[in-house]
Write a structure and sequence with these properties.
Layout (H helix, E strand, L loop, with lengths): L2 H18 L7 H12 L9 H6 L3 H22 L4 H19 L3 H22 L2 H12 L12 H18 L4 H16 L27 H26 L2
Amino acid sequence: MRGSSHLAIGLITGVAIAGLVPGIPFSPAGIALAGFSSLAPDLDHPGSRLSKRLGFAQNYVRWAFMVGAAVLAAYTHFLLPPGPDRRMGFTAALAFGLIGAAMQGDATRKLALLFTGLCTVVAGLYTEYVWLSMLGCFVAVAPYTSHRTWTHTLWAAALWTYIGHLANQSLGWHGVALFAGGGYLSHLLADTLTKAGVKYFMPLWDVSVKIPLIRTGSKSGNFLEVAICAGYGLLVLGLVVGRMGF
């Protein structure tokens, strides 16, 4: 299913949680969190919306390696005396340059997300927020997994929900776990409607669970996605309005 459809379903799920779950205040931030969480499973996909947003530095990573190689080569040439250290410096500069030159597309994206995730881990350690460090680990590791493997399992959904639970405890923001977990699970349920399905219990049960209604990218598939989003939205709207007593 397309990222825009996942985002719409995640936001609608956030509205459902905010409007229908007793004790959960209606929160635009919570709804936004559900939308964000609905995109998280596709961090393993090179074309996903969240990968592109979180890997904001990916267009600059390649040039950073090239510039680093040039700086290291200049330092080695002008400041190091002839000998083993100088040879090592030029070798390292050459290695950095070759890595930068070889980086294309997905490799750059993965490295940028790794950098983003590690920065988040460090921020979590500095602020003593365990949930933030766990979030950083998720962002750093997910791009290096195959699409629709471990990020599309119940174990990953449980981990994401637990991160929300820890954030709830740290920040005192009631409902974080529900918004996070609901948004994440909405993605898995939506992908269940595609022909590829979802391996919920991988690696214990390496079988895709699916109701193959949608062929992602096809005209009929796009139409069905819009219809599902519209129907789901109308259903949630009706339930929320009914609960409010209008």
